[in-house]
Write a structure and sequence with these properties.
With 301 residues, the protein is an alpha+beta fold. The chain has three domains: 2-91 and 285-289, 3-Layer(aba) Sandwich (Rossmann fold); 96-113 and 182-276, ATP-grasp fold, B domain (D-amino Acid Aminotransferase, Chain A, domain 1); 117-179, ATP-grasp fold, A domain (Dna Ligase, domain 1, 2-Layer Sandwich), CATH 3.30.1490. It has nine helices and 16 strands. β12 (186-193) and β13 form a beta hairpin.
Length: 301
């Protein structure tokens, strides 16, 4: 097979491992800087170019689109979809998962466990918003944040109110969520491929930090998840329409709750903590499923 990968930095662990896994299985794989791709949008003859050369003859594409380039990255991916190239994750699914508000609304629609979440435009509603989520402490999240950046803990009603009003004063959209104290600065990432959880790890934040992101000094270890947690992760991936994703959950007193769904999950933490060849499983999924024009949504929605 001939596989394209969209990635800004080809030297990241995840990207090196995917190239290694594809080449070990005898495939040709080429990495393209997402922002250096450009498009010829012509009726019935869509083209994608890179360095003056048409990209053609590819069987599949692995989109490793960073959160900061979601708009352009999904446009490039849509172009490949229109050219009949099989996407590991479709542009629509990536768009859904990157929009925190939209993803929460879709998960709620499908009855998937979530922390109580509130959203409002007017700061006059701050008191009611805090009341909806059960009062302080609360977690305040920027809609555009990622990897734990833009996530603040409002420990008291006064502190929470100040943070909410400051963000809204800066014209920044935020979500306010209940603080799951019983999770104890730990979360679970379940790695889903093709409707199955293939690996899972527990991440723990460093002392004094309520966020568990590995980028912020957190640690990871392999964990056996419950059948309810497994089902929640699989259903969350299906709600987003993602073939491959990392589903981040907390263990609450009322069962697993989904915090976020990552459509370009890193492989380093999960592979090193579990010893599972996740990159190989991703390439195996592509081998079994890639065929021309198989995009379900055809770039719509």
């Amino acid at each position: 097979m001939k596989i394209a990968m969209l990635a800004r930095n080809p030297n990241l662990y995840s990207h090196l491992r995917l190239v290694e896994a594809a080449e070990e299985r005898g495939h040709e794989i080429n990495v393209f800087d997402t922002l250096k791709c450009y498009m010829n949008i012509t009726s019935r003859r869509p083209e994608l170019r890179y360095g003056g050369v048409k990209l053609e003859g590819y069987d599949a594409v692995i989109p490793r689109i960073g959160a900061s380039v979601t708009f352009y990255g999904t446009a490039v991916l849509r172009q490949l979809e229109m050219m009949g190239v099989y996407p590991l994750n479709e542009s629509v699914g990536i768009g859904r998962s990157r929009d925190k508000l939209r993803s929460m609304q879709l998960l709620a629609r499908d009855g998937i466990g979530l922390p109580i979440t509130a959203f409002a435009h007017d700061t006059k509603m701050t008191g009611e918003v805090l009341e909806i989520v059960g009062g302080a402490p609360v977690v305040i999240k920027l809609l555009e944040g990622t990897q734990g950046i833009g996530v603040v803990l409002g420990e008291t009603p006064k502190a929470a109110k100040s943070v909410i009003e400051a963000f809204r004063g800066a014209k920044v959209n935020i979500l306010v969520q209940e603080f799951i104290k019983e999770a104890g600065a730990t979360d679970i990432r379940a790695f889903v491929i093709g409707g199955k959880v293939v690996a899972s790890m527990m991440r723990t934040g460093e002392e004094g930090e309520f966020r568990s992101n590995l980028h912020m000094g957190g640690t990871a270890k392999s964990i056996k998840i419950s059948s309810e947690e497994r089902s929640t992760a699989i259903r969350a991936a299906k709600s987003m329409g993602l073939n491959v994703c990392g589903v981040d959950m907390l263990r609450s007193n009322h069962g697993p709750v989904v915090m976020e769904i990552n459509s370009s999950p890193g492989l380093e933490g999960v592979e090193k903590s579990t010893g599972i060849d996740v990159a190989g499983k991703i390439i195996e999924f592509i081998e079994k499923n890639a065929s021309p024009g198989k995009t379900k949504t055809k770039g719509k929605g």
